[in-house]
Amino acid sequence: MRANHLRPEPVVDSPTSMLADGIRYLRGGSLDRARACFEQATSSRDPRIRSEALRRLADIKRRRAEWEDGLMLTRRARSVARRAGLREEEAAALNIEATIHLQKGDFEPAVALYRAGLELKPGARQRGLICQNLGTAYAQHGRLAEASEWYARSAAAFRVAGQRREAMLALINQGNLQMDRGELAEAEKIFRDGLAYMNEDPSPDTELHGLIEMNLAEALGRQGSELDHALDLVLSATGTFAASENRPYLVACHRVLALISERRGEWETAISALEHGRDLAAEIGSGPEVVRLEQELSRLQREREQSPAQSTEAP
User: Fold this and answer.
1) CA angle 38–246–201, rounded 5-degree value
2) Could you give the CA distance from residue 65 to residue 198 in angstroms, rounded to a whole number?
3) With CB atoms counted within 10 Å of each terminal CB, which end of the chain scores lower, N or C?
4) Considering the entire predicted model, what is its pTM?
């Protein structure tokens, strides 16, 4: 059953417990139940709880690519935090707001907001999250040296914070950076280690698990190795993100599925995956992904048209 078809359970607990329950549902992929909890937590008189609840509602909107609603909620979360002098919560809201801009393809506003968050001098965990996202922003623009520097700062902050989930995020980013550099075998090893680590967790974070599966599938696909396993991985990740309606990650899954299908010689499946990814990227307003997928689609269609002629020329 898809997560958005789950009817939120009636809740009568305090805003504090609602916030905790919402986080648990969020990490389990039950976004509708998480949303119901966070909405109740916004009634708290404690500005810290109210700001975090608003921020986490914004994060659900981000995952579903409901950009404008997400931005409105982050600004409300920021306002609550600023009035109460809660610099940590204000930095956290800035981080989500910046990430929405980044996923929309608005690089400069995103970087400015991330830096504004760091200027508030948040604690190690939040500092690590912001540095990590700055690394991702620079990596997406091919500025790998700067990305590496920000990822290193992120990893250092997470070590100080002693956070298991955040350490895994840092590991994923290290793997992605190795893929950007063309070090595919090293990226594969990092993602395999991460997946084994996640499988040892009795209460896994479904989004992180899906993210590692998708990245390992891409590393294998780009090497042309273990393609059946790579296909299983990306289909599993697609199921995870479809259930939680995480549309930006679904776009990425379509791209990886196309890569693997092309390596398997399944041209029509690859083209269909790129078309679905492009259409979804356009639907959620992710301009850079639309351009990227259009380019891949054009290349693949040209190669498919040329392949019969090439095969007839073979002895």
Assistant:
1) 75
2) 26
3) C
4) 0.75
